[in-house]
Amino acid sequence: MGRLRVYGFVAGFLVLPLTLYAVFVISPYVQAFQIALTDWRGVSSGLNYIGLDNFARMFGDETFWQAIGNHVVLLVALPLTTIALALAFAYLLNGSGRAKVRGSGFYRVVFFLPQVLAVAVVGVLFKAVYRPDSSGVLNGLLGTAGIEPVGWLTEPGLALWAIIAVMVWQGVGFYVVLFSAGMAAIPAEVFEAASLDGAGRVRMFFSITLPLLWDTVQVGWVYLGIAAFDGFALVNVLSVEQGGPGGATTVLALEIYKNAFGYSRFGYASALGVALFFLTLTFAGLTMRMTRRERIEF
């Protein structure tokens, strides 16, 4: 009887949050899967089911595969660059268990500042940085060295990398703070013992800091991978012709937006959304599986 009361007490607390989760999270997913099987254009009250036609069209769409290719580049470049820079900066600021760098708290605030800015603000800011003429910040600097202006966002081979650079700039500060907190929790005695054994800073990083910080790095990789499957706001603001030039910077989220609200093809947009959902889920699952290792405690 006592156990039933405990279960009833716990269930009473869970009913409201589970209901809200089902209504505002699960229900939209179910509706998206349903609309993906229709040719709904957003104006009619009824749904005309067409089966898997939207998915067949999606797999034959060149723009879809172009977006997938861009996501592959993002999945490799964004997490790798962001985590590498964040680990390096955090390790330098944390002092590898020795005396902390003077003013490290201030530096963490400076690194974190881009994370506070709205994505649209960041996009507008870097539009000025990447202007293709001499009035752009980068091209202005290149002009002082006698170098011709570069079309950072208009050259197909450069545009995606220019946007990735902005994503890294905006996101690295958060992971600097995250990794710094993890490094600060490692006992200084561990580093002192390694130092007495003759280990240098590089050896201590790879033999002590990184293994003890692995769980945090793993979570950061998953978050950055999910961010790589998004990229909508920055691509929409920075890219020419929404994903251009010639689809060189397009991503699935942008194609969903264009098909739904630009072409009123809500059924096809939902099919793209379903594909994005499963791609993100698959990436997160594979990453957690492939990077799993025994937990090191200290």
List the helices and strands and how they pair.
Elements: H1 2-35, H2 53-59, H3 62-94, H4 104-116, H5 119-129, H6 137-144, H7 156-184, H8 188-196, H9 201-212, H10 214-228, H11 232-238, H12 252-262, H13 266-290
Helix pairs in contact: 1-13, 2-13, 3-7, 3-10, 4-7, 5-11, 10-13, 12-13
List keywords for this structure.
MetI-like fold, mainly alpha, flat, 298 residues, single chain
The CATH topology is: MetI-like fold
Task: Give the helix tally.
Answer: 13
In angstroms, what is the radius of gyration?
24 Å
Largest sheet entry: none
Q: Spell the H/E element sequence.
A: HHHHHHHHHHHHH
The CATH superfamily is: MetI-like
- Unreliable spans are none
Explain what you see.
The protein is mainly α and 298 residues long. It has a single domain (55-290), classed as MetI-like fold. The protein has 13 helices and no strands. The model has no long low-confidence stretch (mean pLDDT 84).
Q: Care to give the gist of this entry?
A:
By secondary structure, this protein is mainly α. The protein has helices at residues 2-35, 53-59, 62-94, 104-116, 119-129, 137-144, 156-184, 188-196, 201-212, 214-228, 232-238, 252-262, 266-290. 72% of the residues lie in helices and 0% in strands.
